[in-house]
Design brief:
Helix content: 25-40%
CATH architecture: 3-Layer(aba) Sandwich
Structural class: alpha/beta
Strand content: 5-15%
CATH topology: Rossmann fold
CATH superfamily: NAD(P)-binding Rossmann-like Domain
Number of strands: 7
Oligomer: single chain
Order of helices and strands: EHEHEHEHEHEHHHE
């Protein structure tokens, strides 16, 4: 079996400085993100299960959708309006032999998050795995430049949508169900230019640990994954050019993670292999700090 230095598994910075309008597109990224298209091999760990993943059109969400499908799970793909990216995720899920349902809309709006939950349940009958992954992020050098409206929008998408989807999905979950929330290294080591985003990620970690105590009464586990820098469309569409160019260079790997490197953690947490794991936060920070 051949092995490779993990520092050299993927391209290191500098990355392209090409700016994208939010929320960004996979097609425009340089280098291209790896979601596990040619590398992820499933072993049937999620066979027969149904998952709802928010922000599943691209980045970590797409990698998780692909991995879940190759493990045997049908996937409801929630996304804002990135139709081209979402269709590619749909194609990957179907290619893996599983069902895919596209659910567009801004889950920061109450009626949309409620509709996403309802339509996912109508499509599959039950949801066994809920992944709250969608996120809104903007960077500001000056605190005073953050508007009330944008601060509220960050919480609506990152926190309120998670809260509402958990309320809608948890009551119908069967024993062995799993809720996985996407936190961040920003939950523990917040950057000055990401005040709104970082504070929502801290809230997600607290919410995860609190909900875990309630959900386990139903036999449902609740955990979070806290990635460090991951190369997704959110980066070139929301961060300054100089930060994009050197993104991930401060990790001990000297590079950003690819979505394919994070998705297996979600698979583990969704599977029966994590039967004694709840209320935990799994870090994948590139050695930046312990979670």
């Amino acid at each position: 079996m051949s092995t490779k230095d993990p520092k050299d598994t993927y391209q290191r910075p500098p990355y392209s400085e090409k700016k994208q309008p939010p929320p960004g597109s996979e097609e425009e990224m340089t280098p291209k993100a790896d979601h596990g298209e040619s590398s992820y091999k499933g072993t049937g760990r999620l066979k027969g299960r149904h998952a709802l993943i928010t922000g599943a059109d691209s980045g970590i969400g797409r990698a998780v959708a692909l991995a879940f499908a190759r493990e045997g799970a049908d996937v409801a793909i929630s996304y804002l309006d990135e139709e081209t990216d979402a269709r590619e995720t749909e194609r990957l899920v179907i290619e893996a032999g599983c069902k895919a349902v596209l659910l567009p809309g801004d889950i920061g709006e109450r009626r949309v998050s409620e509709a996403v939950a309802r339509k996912a349940l109508e499509a599959f009958g039950t949801i066994d795995i809920l992944v709250n992954n969608a996120a809104f992020q903007r960077t500001y050098d000056k605190f005073q430049d953050i508007s009330d409206e944008e601060f509220e929008e960050t919480y609506r998408v990152n926190v309120f949508a998670m809260f509402r989807l958990c309320k809608a999905i948890l009551p119908q979950m069967k024993e062995g169900g799993s809720i996985i929330n996407t936190g961040s290294i920003q939950s523990f080591d917040p950057s000055a230019n990401l005040i709104a985003y970082a504070s929502t990620k801290a809230a997600i970690v607290s919410f995860t640990r609190s909900l875990a105590s309630h959900a386990i009464e139903r036999g449902v586990r609740v955990n979070a994954v806290a990635p460090g820098p991951v190369w997704t469309p959110l980066i070139p569409s929301t961060m300054p050019k100089e930060k994009v160019k050197q993104f991930g260079s401060k990790t001990v790997f000297g590079r950003a993670a690819q979505p394919a490197e994070v998705a297996p953690i979600f698979v583990f947490l969704a599977s029966d292999q994590a039967s004694y794991v709840t209320g935990e936060v799994y870090g994948a920070t590139g050695g930046q700090m312990p979670i």
